Amino acid sequence: MDSYIKGYFCEKDIADDCDKIISAVKCDKLIHAEKTKYQDLVVFESDVLGRCLALDGAMQLTEKDEFSYQEMISFLPLNSHPNPKKVLIVGGGDGGVIRECLKHPSVESITLCEIDERVVEVSKKYLPFMASSFNDPKVKVLIGDGYAYIRENKDAFDVIITDSSDPKGPAVSLFQKEYYQSLKECLRSGGIIACQAETIWFHLHLIKFLYATASELFASVAYALTLVPTYPSGQIGFLLACKDKKINFGEPIHKLTDEQVAEMKLKYYSTEIHRASFVLPNFVRNELKTETQSK
Amino acid sequence: MDSYIKGYFCEKDIADDCDKIISAVKCDKLIHAEKTKYQDLVVFESDVLGRCLALDGAMQLTEKDEFSYQEMISFLPLNSHPNPKKVLIVGGGDGGVIRECLKHPSVESITLCEIDERVVEVSKKYLPFMASSFNDPKVKVLIGDGYAYIRENKDAFDVIITDSSDPKGPAVSLFQKEYYQSLKECLRSGGIIACQAETIWFHLHLIKFLYATASELFASVAYALTLVPTYPSGQIGFLLACKDKKINFGEPIHKLTDEQVAEMKLKYYSTEIHRASFVLPNFVRNELKTETQSK
């Protein structure tokens, strides 16, 4: 099934790439479409969702709801680390994670490693609300294979955020044990990772695998939920792990006041949301065999 | 746009009933379809979602994910009340809320008032996982207008659960101020309501209206979230309110142990999930002007 049918962008919903559940968004105006070296890239305008970017037929972001993903994948690890100075972002070529990480007062440098230069260029041109911070002096953008970059850099970062697409196409290697091993080695002592880790509703088997894999390698592991209505199932999650310290991810070290939340223009993340995001439904908790997350 | 296109059940996603976002579920086997006195009723089988029931083109439940809705709309109010003996369910003809309420040890009687007898009959026949408890001696089923029943009964129930469909068709009157006034009068002292209250992503204006309306009438009001991947946006919420007591809905009076959760076969609800469900993203909290929900 093609991604475009009669003016609708159509996305298959299930992990196995079958066509049992499909979500369709009216494409009110096509802004840009190209086949890059790595993937099909489309930007379109939806009357109800604003600007939307899709890669290989999967919605990556919409103007209406991107904040819940960008804020959570950034602030969950940053606020779990006592002093996150050096941040690496793997993927994230739209610039949204950079935008959020720059809000954190401890962050001194952000390196972004995006394999597809066209995602960065197209985002700069058509998604200014995402790609607003590429020129910030703290930001360094590398075009290349993030996995290779991680292997070449040891003990280098306090926080590594893997802002990847789904485990197919260019992102498939980012959901394997070797990648997590390399992430660990790329972290400084006390370092934390946050990786895009799919939905509890249709990818629980994958989440279980990632959780178990990370648990073999890292001192602390947790899975957190956020809501993104334009992703399949309306929910996506993040795998967080700390290299060498036992930490309780459910209780952030940096607690933002309501004033800070307002100053930082956070529409989703708060200290309370941070805590709540690690509380998992029983059917997930039982699969991951996590202990009761809060008292 | 019709609900069935080329073997797919298609649902429009947005409050305004436009066709900008559509979700489509492959209808692998049509089990039953009829036009009842009140609405179009369809039961079909999906390979990935199991048995599904739709009313007037809107998905009401699927076998895969119904538990998160049924458990939450039942246990959030029941565990917020010190002694919920008498329960009224408005709507809920599929029987799922009865099934959950019967698990609570304090509950002595459950009255269900469903306007459409065919929903009850069809659920008994085709959805045995939902309609398992209609014959329980604690349960009384009335076929009729729930709103009329509420107006006729004062100071009668400890908990009233409005398990309604969306605010169109037979359910439209259940989203109006007069209905909330009648709910209040139908409650006994200390009584609590829980009403289906749509999604934060596309119906925030309605939620704001319901929240403000209930705040004028009730002593305590709160909105809670749950995840239902087969509902539009993947999230739905509940409006809870207590007739005449200041209570903190975010902290349940009855705290279930892990053993109780296992005994009751709860796949979603736990004490931790209860607390977390009242923690709202900033953009919702700001609209509802609620205070910080947890400390």
From TrEMBL, chains A, B:
<dbReference type="InterPro" id="IPR030374">
    <property type="entry name" value="PABS"/>
</dbReference>
<keyword id="KW-0808">Transferase</keyword>
<dbReference type="InterPro" id="IPR037163">
    <property type="entry name" value="Spermidine_synt_N_sf"/>
</dbReference>
<keyword id="KW-0620">Polyamine biosynthesis</keyword>
<comment type="similarity">
    <text>Belongs to the spermidine/spermine synthase family.</text>
</comment>
<dbReference type="InterPro" id="IPR035246">
    <property type="entry name" value="Spermidine_synt_N"/>
</dbReference>
<dbReference type="Pfam" id="PF17284">
    <property type="entry name" value="Spermine_synt_N"/>
</dbReference>
<dbReference type="GO" id="GO:0008295">
    <property type="term" value="P:spermidine biosynthetic process"/>
</dbReference>
<dbReference type="InterPro" id="IPR029063">
    <property type="entry name" value="SAM-dependent_MTases_sf"/>
</dbReference>
<dbReference type="InterPro" id="IPR001045">
    <property type="entry name" value="Spermi_synthase"/>
</dbReference>
<feature type="domain" description="PABS">
    <location>
        <begin position="6"/>
        <end position="243"/>
    </location>
</feature>
<dbReference type="GO" id="GO:0004766">
    <property type="term" value="F:spermidine synthase activity"/>
</dbReference>
<dbReference type="Pfam" id="PF01564">
    <property type="entry name" value="Spermine_synth"/>
</dbReference>
<dbReference type="InterPro" id="IPR030373">
    <property type="entry name" value="PABS_CS"/>
</dbReference>
<feature type="active site" description="Proton acceptor">
    <location>
        <position position="163"/>
    </location>
</feature>
<dbReference type="GO" id="GO:0005829">
    <property type="term" value="C:cytosol"/>
</dbReference>
<protein>
    <recommendedName>
        <fullName>PABS domain-containing protein</fullName>
    </recommendedName>
</protein>
